[in-house]
């Protein structure tokens, strides 16, 4: 991420304060913001928000979350993956639970709301119900997922995959930068479990009514639309490729334009095709995030160029069609320019639709609270993606300030927006009905 | 340079052997090729052609050139810049001289004809005249310029600038990779001069009738045209820039296409504009030789992109117009895409036209030998560029095989083409008339 460039830009701050929640909600918003600040003290590097899996900072945050959950009237436990799980019992003990939550690990030098918001917000709502002595026919479980970002062990969604029963045992052998394996880190974490207990952390589907996740948007869509909240339609699927173009290097002064086989200009043309092809289609995005000319020199016509392609769409068919067109364009451009293109697929993940009935619960809650209804896809991955393996999922996005930047210390969110989200979450829980 | 890519490409070898010089010329061609091979043994790294300024390999090559010059009946001297100068006296001692020559330093891992050809070829012709007892009204001086490429001390054209009287004293303080200054290298070279004698190495204009240089083309134009030889019209002027685009970094999944300020796509669009603008205009070329996204990641919309621009043309007005259009396009593209473009000019050199009367001498000689007449500009710099400060200059290019590649061990030239060039050089000298 590029801090100076972002600072230089005027943030796209339209109507940041248009959400006007009531007094109760206002207090919830203040409390969420205060807790986010307190929790951010649990960091590996002072002055930065860095909290990776099973470090001292991570354990400190887990202890703080447990304490707040207990204060809010929840029974708290941890599991073998290090997740922090609070259960707010229903009117009948042992009732199936509506699960909510998000991750409390962070990227290096990231923001304090990414993930954490989705844990702190339901704790605040539950604390209010607890103070009022209010319970529901269903239980509510709040899970602080121990790991989503994949920073320390280069494997993502560890916490939610453990809960969903899709934890991949092979990643236990992954090592961090110091050569410590994930297995050793878990076994030595003092969780009261060993890494071999992870499969037992999986929920049974009949215990679960559904999974709802509140998350900061991490993009500029709500900010640009002037809205505090949006209901997520799907978590986009993604296709990634690395492309290497081989042309013919030559002297920048002596090879006439018509005789060139310039690898970089072929790559540039492909990049602009991707941009054009992915524009104008809702929920579809295409990015060339890496581009270089190996051993490039100002006075040499590039013989090689390398670049990455990342294509995402909420609809898998839309993504597949875009990928097909891009691959066909690469072939055509390479042939016309007499260069070779080596194409390597590096990643492919299908989209995860949010369940229609559970989206409706968010929609009803948004309307009930008097906010405008807005839908958007999630281009980033979230714990809900893993939870979809065991239950229906749906998400609520909260406006991301400062141009929509995230994974960056400039990530920000207003107390008003946090309050609006808490109000809507409370409305969803208070009027929750399972799909017929 | 990209060896594998070049090797994979079929070389554009059209009619490599169409030149069919007579028996005498054939012998000259064989001799030039043999001498180029012998001289290539003077290298810093066995198996590679690397001969930088005032190294042991460089001194060895100078001694070998001196020996061949002496055998050819020349008086040989060195000057304070390390140039090797052979004089083939005219019918009257002390007559003004037609000067020819080129450089005998090389790039690292370069070709054996680049520069060296322009020294070895006139020595071969003169050796033949010497054997025949033939002299002319004018003297002929062959200069093996000690330094042109600028590899060791990051300063180019040292030898020809010393002869032309335009040697920049400040570069004496430049240091090589080992921290040795150029001044110390010259003072310790055993040349019989110190670096303070360099100004005295300059010729007086009245000693000189003109400067003609034979050089391998270092490009694919003659190869593509199926011709052994071409008369150079001008050495192109060049403008170079480094451009840094600042946009806004963002998440590749969460920032919709319409809200992006993608620095790399702006750079790609500018690159393609440069390519288009510089195509279709004879003698004009434009190159983006460097392109990178600092800290780029596959899943991040680029917030920054950097690239180089190199624009050259034989006609300065053509180059200036292209540069103006490109700079205007950068401004327009940056504004439309809401990114900033920082533009830094890194180099600006005017073109050096070859003198019309001296071009005519080459043309007459080409016709006399029965070769087709062909003109082309030189996109690369040559010693003739520096010599233009003291006298009129003109050049003859010799076809470069293997796709036109140079500054590379794959650089190649046929004995037939060397013979053709020697035949034309001999014809030029034998019928030389100074401009009226």
Characteristics of this structure?
Alpha-Beta Plaits, Aminopeptidase, 33% helix, disordered N terminus, 436 residues, homodimer, alpha+beta, 9-stranded mixed beta sheet
Describe this structure in words.
The structure is a homodimer of 436-residue chains. By secondary structure, the first copy, chain A, is α+β, with helices and mostly antiparallel strands. Chain A folds into two domains: 24-236 and 351-430, Zn peptidases (Aminopeptidase), CATH 3.40.630; 237-349, Alpha-Beta Plaits. Helices cover 33% and strands 21% of the residues of chain A. The first copy, chain A, has twelve helices and 16 strands. In chain A, the strands form three sheets. In chain A, strands 1, 2, 3, 4, 5, 6, 14, 15 and 16 form a nine-stranded mixed beta sheet that branches. In chain A, strands 7, 9, 10, 12 and 13 form a five-stranded antiparallel beta sheet that branches. The radius of gyration of chain A is 24 Å and the shape is globular. Mean pLDDT of chain A is 93; it is low at 1-21. At the A-B interface, helix 1, strand 7, strand 8, helix 8 and strand 9 of A face helix 1, strand 7, strand 8, helix 8 and strand 9 of B.
List strands and helices in order, with pairings.
2 copies of one chain form a homodimer.
Chain A: H1 3-8, H2 23-39, H3 56-71, E1 75-78, E2 84-88, E3 97-103, H4 117-132, E4 139-145, H5 158-164, H6 182-187, E5 208-216, H7 221-225, E6 229-235, E7 237-246, E8 250-251, H8 263-277, E9 284-287, E10 291-292, E11 300-301, E12 304-313, H9 316-336, E13 340-349, E14 352-353, H10 356-368, E15 375-378, H11 383-387, E16 393-398, H12 415-430
Parallel strand pairs in A: 3-4, 3-5, 5-16, 6-15
Antiparallel strand pairs in A: 1-2, 2-4, 6-14, 6-16, 7-12, 7-13, 8-11, 9-12, 10-12
Helix pairs in contact in A: 2-4, 2-12, 3-4, 4-12, 8-9, 10-12
